[in-house]
Structures are given as structure tokens and as C-alpha cells.
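DM from R.C. (forwarded with permission)

"hey, sorry to bug you on a friday — could you get me a structure for this? deadline for the figure draft is monday and I only need the backbone to look sensible"
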Amino acid sequence: MFDTLSDKLDSAFKNLTGEGKLTEINIAQSIKEIRRALVAADVNYKIAKEFTDRVKEQAMGTRNVLKAVKPGELMVKIVMDEMVELMGGQSVGINLSGSPAVILIAGLQGSGKTTFTGKLAKHLKEKKRLKVLVAACDVYRPAAIDQLTVLAKQVDVEIYKETENKNPISIAGNALVYAKQNNFGAVIIDTAGRLSVDEEMMDEIAAIKDKITPSETLFVVDSMTGQDAVNTAAVFNERIDYNGVVLTKLDGDTRGGAALSIKYTVGKPIKFVSTGEKMDALDVFHPDRMAQRILGMGDIVSFVEKAQDQFDEKEAQRLEKKIKKNKFDFNDFLGQMAQIRKMGDLRSLIGMIPGMSKLKNLDIDDNAFAKVESIIHSMTPEERTNPDLLNMSRKRRIAKGCGRNIHEINMFIKQFNQMRKMMHMMSKGKGMQQLMGNFPNMPGMN
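My reply, with the result:
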């Protein structure tokens, strides 16, 4: 996420390495590089210039005050503070007032509206404990209703649809009546998009909004389109005056322009960010956390929150006892992999750990879990419970069963035993240095 922007900003800060203090000359050099980085990230030049002017003003004002702080670190702090303000300052939650709360989803075709509708339904159901109804009001795109039907089933919420009705305004109104009659806590209205902004589209979405009077209108934009996304957001806001923005596809080749400048341009907060196709790949937008990730500092708070969502206290206590006795087995390992998978994409998780995003040579195999699982599933129940049983004869049978060669089997078992040993040492309050030293050798990491 934002790798290119992060690298360019990092280079700008490195210009201050070895400098004893901030001076007018080295500040000017860094400001020039920061502005170039922002423009390359598809941030509007006017916004980039105003941003760097504020950074320069702050840097000049503190250069003779905070002498104990290294120049590079001071510049990073100033840039981060200004970046947080540029993106909205603080997180803004979704408005769920009303009985039911009505959320209208708008945006261009291909921006990810329908997928976001499914993700938001899951979020409201699990995080807010609401009974959620999704309404299929995209009557134009082929298979749009079918897609939402599949997503609704996937996240276990009800869908309202009228396959023979081609009037989205009527469908939206009927969905709201149905929701009130059946005591739903929230209704999410998925609407049609177009390949470009047109008057017919604007008239329709405005009419739907007038019909249902939503408590929240969210505009979904594809963050990969950069400044185009910002311009489209401005046009939509003039017509329907939405409450917040959703940035999708942040896991793609995102330059960062939309995230950094949409709040400044439109005056509406980013409320959610979406990555990938999985229904749990949705996060509330926090400007401070996003700024930290852009500057390569990771996002340990979000990482911990994701971990806590999957945390099972009884299971943790059970595993702790097994680890202390050095009895951690392949069944336990499978269970831990399942929990990690639920937390989201592995590359994204690694990027949340401070310092890890700068390890460019860290190769994370997205298929590592699948390979490991195929090996473990080729073992007998007895072998999974007792890893010490795995002699050469058993390894050959496992290799045939999972379609791997004997070298891969040996390598995995060796890495598993190393990990088990380190976990046992950690449980006794030692071994942190050895554990970190062996981190790149864990299964799936090269």
C-alpha cells in the first residue's frame, strides 16, 4: 500500500541524515523532494504546494527549539502531523440513527460498490450487532442482483430484491417499508453506477435519496484512479451532498493521491477503506494510522485490533500449557494459521508491523499456507499429534500424498521444529533475540 510514495518520502528524510540540525538549506531540499513525492502520487499540485508550505513553516519554527531531536526525525514528525490534518484529523464514524438506519451507496461502475455493500453488512452485523437488510437497486448491470445475492448469503444477511421491477426508486422505497415491517436495524441500498458521470445517473441517485431520506450516504471511489477519483467525488458531492467517502482497492497499485487529497477537495471525511475481495477486508479509516503506514511506521493498533477480533482466551490458555510442555503439534499449527487467515491478507498484516514495510527483500508467499496445509493434511491423525514420529518412510508417504518433493517436506518439518523450540523458549521468558533472528526462516518466509 502506497509503497512508491513511502519510498520517495523516505528518501526525502534521508537527505537530513548526518545533519546536526535543521537549516534553511536542508529544509528547502527536503521540502522539494516531499513535494515531488506527493505530485508523483497523483496529489493535485496546489494541494501538494500548500501542504509543503505548511511543513516548511513548521520546520522553520522548530529548528532552533527542539535541538535534542534529530533533524530527520523532526521532519518526519512534522510531515506526519500535517498529513493527519490533510486527511481529516480524526476518524469519523458512520451515522446509524433512525429505525432502521438507512445507508445509501453511490459511485461509478467498477468502483466496488456491491462488494463494499456486502462488507459493510458484515461489519454492521458483527461490530454493531444490527439486523441488516441489503437492497438490490442496480437494475442495469448484468448479474448485479445475483452478485449481491451471493454476498448476502456469504455474510448471512437478508437481501431485498424485485427481479421484475426495473424502477430502482420504487425498489428502494419498498425495501425500506419491508425493513420497518420486519424490525431490521439497518438497510443498505446498493445503487447502479455508470462508466462516467452523466445527468441521468445523477437524477436517479438524487431521486432515490429523496425517496428514502438516508441517515448516511456514502460515496465509493476506486483509489487506484488517483486524482480522477477526487474529481468524480467532487461532482457527486455537488449533486447529492453525501456524508462520507469509501476508498476501495487499496491493496492494488495505489499511488495515494485519493487518500491524501479527497478530504481537502470535497470537505467530506473518508469513513472506510477496503482491500481485496474478502468480506472481512474492511477497516474504519483513521487518518493518524494511515499517515503512519504511508511513512513506513506500520499500524500496530490496527494489527492488535485484528488479532483481538480472532482471540479466543480459552484456546490461548490451552496452547500456552502445550507450549510450556513443548507439546505444540501440527493440529495446533493448523488452528493458528486459520486464525491468521481470518485477520486478512498476509502482506497487508506484515505492513502493519513497524519497520517490516521497509524490508524490501522479505518475500512473503501468499500461497504458503496452502502448501503447508496440504502437507499437514497428508499426515495421519497420529502424526499430526506427535511430530516426533515423522521418520523418512513417513515423510516419503506424505510427499506423495500432497504432491511435494521430499526436500520440501524436510524443510517444513525442520522449520516447524525450530519454531516449536523457540516458542518453548519464549514461554520460559527467554529466546526473544533468537526468535527475531529466525523470523525470516518461518514457514512461508524467504
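R.C.: lifesaver. The chain has three domains: 3-86, 101-297, 305-441.
me: no worries. The first strand starts at residue 101 and ends at 107.
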